[in-house]
Amino acid sequence: MALPSRPIRVAIVNDYQVVVAGIVTMLADYQDRIEIVELDTRLPVVSDVDIVLLDTFAFVESQGVALVDLVRTGDSKVVVFTWTTDPRSAISASLKGVAGYLSKTLSALDLVSALEDIHAGLPVADACEEPAGEDGLGDWPGREAGLTPREAEVLALIARGMTNQAVAEELFLSINSVKSYIRSAYRKIGAQRRAEAVIWALQNGFAFHATRSLAASR
Question: Which residues cross the membrane (predicted)?
């Protein structure tokens, strides 16, 4: 397809600054094609952008910015960037008006190309197939401790006070998968109990604060 006449204006949204910053780093080599004009954690988008890129790492609508509110913001297209591969999640997002559902196993170049296609109104394959691994780019809390994205996401939701069953429902995982991620995460961070894991999480990047950064201020 022909490249757009100007870079696509993008806002990046997630509840964690490290996740948002990771996407900025991921897209840094493509500034001629992607212009990042706003970064938000737990705040709605205020800039005039072409695409709102929502990273769903530990994203819980009832505890922050609602997906439907992002979709209703101006003429921007909302694109979900996620590790969740269950088709039910993709269908739910589509019914809420999301324009694209992309896997976090995409390379930076493939992500840029997908965003350009979505901006142009072209169909883009969603992330319904289970990835072979969790080797996508970007960043997440707990990465330096050896946590995989999914282990970190489960730990983040536990740190918010969610039960194992609630985590399973939120991430479209089986309860046994959630328990397995919890065990492996606990082992890596040296936690024996849930309370210890929550304390560790809050002391190691899993606490979140509402922030906004606009292009003019960066």
Answer: none
